[in-house]
Design a protein that fits this description.
The protein has helices at residues 18-122, 127-139, 143-156, 161-177, 181-194, 199-211, 215-228, 235-246. Mean pLDDT is 74; it is low at 1-32 and 55-66. Helix 2 (127-139) runs parallel beside helix 4 and helix 4 (161-177) packs antiparallel against helix 5. The chain has a domain at 126-246: Alpha Horseshoe (Serine Threonine Protein Phosphatase 5, Tetratricopeptide repeat), CATH 1.25.40. It is flat, with a radius of gyration of 53 Å. With 259 residues, it is an all-alpha fold. Helix content is 78%, strand content 0%.
Length: 259
């Protein structure tokens, strides 16, 4: 230091006064405290990062477990939607089939009616053709026209009486559907008189009497059907229903257990 022309007065370390020493000790203590705080903050931040990391891992693992459930649910919903679509297509197919069938039947009836009407106009139609034309009009729900041609068929009829019973039955159906129940009943009775085993006419007669609220006579007509056809699907349930309505079992003695 003398070389540079500077003088430096050195003070021994032991000569440091108590006030400076206390300041330095406080500074050292503060530094230690600061280091402790920094160390605690570092530990806390490390713990926080570790907790967040573990939370993310746990969430990702949970997400991995839940995803298959979501996929199964989506597949199930897709299956239900496909089932509804297939059911709708099936219903549309069935509906289309019946519509086309009705159109074809209607067209066939129209062609038959046209041909038969031409024969009637020409005067060459016989009783059978008049009956067929009346039946076509009946199926087309032209009841006055059906009644007209069926009456003409009866006037010209020269065939078997059992076949004539079919004409009377068709005429009775035309009257009943046109709201003329009494006239229809008269035709059904003529039909079963000509052909006693004509179960279709008996069923029609029973139905007409039931519409007229004459339940007992209707029951007798349906019972006649069961005499010729015990398993008739039309007459059997009607007989059971009508028997309950007219109370046929009142006063009938019950057989003893011994008998």
């Amino acid at each position: 230091m003398q070389k540079f022309g500077m003088a430096l007065t050195l003070r021994p370390i032991l000569s440091i006064d108590q006030h400076d020493l206390s300041k330095k000790l406080c500074t050292v203590k503060d530094g230690k405290n600061m280091k402790g705080l920094l160390r605690g903050a570092s530990i806390l931040s490390s713990a926080t990062i570790a907790w967040l990391t573990s939370s993310e891992v746990a969430y990702s693992s949970t997400d991995i477990k839940i995803n298959p459930v979501y996929e199964v649910g989506e597949l199930f919903e897709l299956g239900i939607q496909l089932s509804y679509v297939l059911l709708l297509l099936a219903l549309l197919g069935v509906g289309t089939f019946f519509v086309i069938r009705q159109v074809l039947v209607r067209r066939e009836l129209d062609l038959s009616a046209k041909e038969l009407q031409e024969q009637v106009r020409s005067g060459d139609a016989n009783a059978t053709e008049l009956f067929e034309l009346g039946a076509v009009m009946l199926r087309r729900k032209f009841y006055p026209a059906a009644t007209k041609f069926l009456l003409q068929a009866i006037e010209k009829w020269d065939g078997d009486d059992q076949d004539l019973a079919q004409v009377y039955n068709a005429l009775g159906v035309s009257y009943v559907r046109d709201g003329k129940i009494d006239k229809g009943i008269a035709q059904f009775e003529k039909a079963v008189k000509l052909q006693p085993g004509y179960v279709t006419a008996w069923n029609n007669l029973g139905d007409a009497y039931e519409q007229k609220k004459d339940l007992k006579t209707a029951l007798k007509a349906f019972e006649e059907v069961l005499l010729f056809d015990p398993n008739n699907k039309v007459a059997r349930p009607r007989v059971e229903s009508l028997r309950e309505r007219v109370n046929m079992y009142k006063g009938v003695p019950v057989k003893s257990k011994e008998r």
